[in-house]
Amino acid sequence: MYDVKQGYEAAKAYYAQFGVDVDEAIKVANETPISMHCWQGDDVAGLEKKEDTSLTGGIQTTGNYPGKARNGEELRADLEVAMKYIPGEIKVNLHASYLEADTFVDRNEVAPEHFKKWADWAVEKGVGLDFNPTYFSHPLSEKATLSSADEEIRKFWIQHGINCRRIGQYFYERTGKTCVINHWTPDGDKEFPIDTVGPRLRMKDSYDQIFEATKDVVGVMDGIESKVFGIGAESYTVGSHEFSMAYALNARKDNIIMTLDTGHFHPTEVVSAKLGALYAFVDHILLHVSRPVRWDSDHVVSFDDETRAIMEELVRLNRLQDTYIATDFFDASINRICAWTIGLRNTRKAMLAALLQPVDKMKELEATGDVSARLAFKEEFKAAPFSLVWDYYCAQQNAGVSLDWLEEVKAYEAEILKVRS
Ligand SMILES: C[C@H](O)[C@H](O)[C@@H](O)C(=O)CO
Ligand SMILES: [Mn+2]
């Protein structure tokens, strides 16, 4: 290993030229929570006691890498391994389908008691918990959920949403940290329907009922996640971007916000370009950081242009602290602990790289009309020595410098994952 401290000192001198406080950047990156999705660990299968665990709702995992977690204990153990190598504040993000009970519990019956093991574990680890109603992978979700024209089915899913908000409050009470709840429904149509508003009016009414019935709930924030299409819902989604944005804005409640998933837009649309416009109107946004490859493929988050641009935009807008950052990917073709570690480290690294830029100086250049210097600065910091600061930060946090973590995860794979059938 090279001299990490020496590298950090050199980088510090480089950044000092531009007035960037490296230690402050590390501090902010370290204290900004990233919500780590549990569903990478078992290919979104969940822990419900049921025969059919197939993934529906127009989302897909591909690959059959050995060693996926088969129960809550294994999933928590795997999460813990990955968490060792992800520096900074982490929350863990659960779907309702990760309930733990001795017998089958249907979605309209989920309750706080089914998440006691998760809450005990989170308290022991000192992490917060976020939550998601699971409006998919269920016989009653095949046609539609919150927008269903069948009142019995719609009622079933409304009850699920209501119960999930109560579970969110339970997580808040146990961990002392706000529980961010995300609502995503797969409702949509393969062909463009004749009646495009009816399903939306029903979905709007369903959300209204969920929030009205739980208006006493405290300690939660609710994101409404939009999506442009899904497999089998290529032409129309009920919860489109316009629907979700309009719902969140019109709700006029501080706790109902928009969720932007980086894989849920047309391929040439980028979330980074939406943030500045939305923050002119809202106080908070929930982000699902993913990597769409040609479609909403949910590849592992990369340290790529868009992830970096999102973080740069949040820093420049001074909205990092107002944005709930969550990861959302599921790759079944590689070691799942590596998937988490790589994706979450990249998310944090992009955040740190964004914080290591002289934003005030760049704003000043722009304000004075010096657009040539603005471009020169933007380009300069693309290749600035942030990785030396990153390595130092990982060393400080005992999170594995460079690829140190890989050998240890491989050892865990050989010892623990390989023996799972
Ligand atoms: C598991 C899903 O990815 C998640 O609930 C949702 O956020 C989504 O992005 C569906 O495409
Ligand atoms: Mn998502």
**Average residue-wise pLDDT:** 97
Q: Level of helix content?
A: 40-55%
Distinct ligand kinds: the ligand C[C@H](O)[C@H](O)[C@@H](O)C(=O)CO, manganese (II) ion
What count of helical segments does DSSP give? Answer: 14
The largest pleated sheet is described as: 8 strands, parallel
- Low-pLDDT stretches are none
Region (Disordered): 51-70
Family: Belongs to the rhamnose isomerase family.
Cofactor: Mn(2+)
Subcellular location: Cytoplasm
Explain the overall architecture.
This protein is α/β, with parallel strands linked by helices and 421 residues long. It has a single domain, classed as Divalent-metal-dependent TIM barrel enzymes (TIM Barrel). It has 14 helices and ten strands. The chain has an eight-stranded parallel sheet. Strands 5-7 form a two-stranded antiparallel sheet. It is globular. The structure holds ligand L2XQQQDX and manganese (II) ion. The site of the ligand C[C@H](O)[C@H](O)[C@@H](O)C(=O)CO has 12 residues, from loops. Belongs to the rhamnose isomerase family.
SSE map:
Elements: H1 4-16, H2 22-31, E1 34-37, H3 72-84, E2 90-95, H4 116-125, E3 128-132, H5 151-175, E4 179-183, E5 188-189, H6 198-213, E6 220-225, E7 236-237, H7 241-251, E8 256-261, H8 275-278, E9 285-289, H9 305-316, E10 323-327, H10 336-355, H11 359-367, H12 371-380, H13 386-396, H14 404-417
Parallel strand pairs: 1-2, 1-10, 2-3, 4-6, 6-8, 8-9, 9-10
Antiparallel strand pairs: 5-7
Bound molecules: the ligand C[C@H](O)[C@H](O)[C@@H](O)C(=O)CO and manganese (II) ion (MN).
